[in-house]
Amino acid sequence: MLTSSDLTNDGLKELRQSALGRPDPLGLAAELAAAVDAGRLADPDDAGAALVLAAEIAEARHKFDAALRYADRAVELSGTRDDNESVTARAVHARLLFQAGRADEALAELEPLRPALTQHQDAAAYISAALSIGGRNRIALDWLTEAAEQALAERKASGGSAEPASADDAGLLFFLLQQRHRVRHALNLPHDSHDNLADKLETRLANAAATGAADDLVFFPQAEFDKVVAQWPALSESYGKDWDEHRARRERELVRLTGAGRTGLALLAGTADGLSRSAGDADPADPKSRAAYARQLAGGTSQIPWPPERNGACWCGSGNKYKKCCLPRSR
């Protein structure tokens, strides 16, 4: 039986990770749908996410009729919104339409979602998965190539380097390149320059994980961030050119780690004085100094649990609600 803690945004994320291991996953899907009907979600805006989860549970158990009913309702609830949850609901709906033999309807559902590939992180995975299941890998490749090239062009136009230094630096481009790489592999196509960049970013990401570096989770409150970049301007490349970019990078990294299966995540709250003391005679902008400071913070108590509730105070300390502050920055 679902409890009130299961029906928060955090609870739904936990259910997603454990749903198929439960004794009666189909019963869980039905309970989620019933909770939506009864208005038992902590945040009514999570109704679409709950129904998408129900649809994916039913799909995994090959109950495609039930899955399609749940997805129909998720799409209906999303209305004309173009946020991440709405895009996900429509892509899952299209995936199920393909499996029901309704390819024309599936493609009609997906076509309007093409712009979302450069706007929402989950879009690349969900849209390309739907097209692949429908046997439309060539279409997926065309769409992902167009989106990746648009993201690269926007990066160059904003003054970014031609080749991102890391997966975090690449942002949404990284996820587009990953999905494009996967589709090209399925089509047995040789590597091109975009595939090579995807490989480089994957390798850098793996190396960062292997060293246990938590530098990407070090967070400076606004006053401390201003001190850091004033004292060591070179750190703006690692921590962000301004506080908004700093917060956005941290939110994106936390979302990425969640997608990779990590739980119990937290920001490591830093200070300019703390960074200086940790570095000692070394340059605080040196990667080794930053990594050492991150490890020091990870072993301390100055940590900020993540994520907060959607309607709770944002983790960054702005005083605004999370859903109106840093949650959208991950996109």
Characterization of this structure:
With 331 residues, this protein is mainly α. It has a domain at 213-331. 60% of the residues lie in helices and 3% in strands. The chain has helices spanning 9-18, 25-37, 47-60, 64-78, 84-99, 103-110, 121-133, 137-157, 167-170, 172-186, 193-210, 222-231, 236-239, 243-259, 272-279, 287-298; strands spanning 218-219, 266-269, 303-305. It has a three-stranded mixed β-sheet with strand order 1-2-3, with helices on both faces. α2 packs antiparallel against α3. The radius of gyration is 21 Å and the shape is globular. The model has no long low-confidence stretch (mean pLDDT 88).
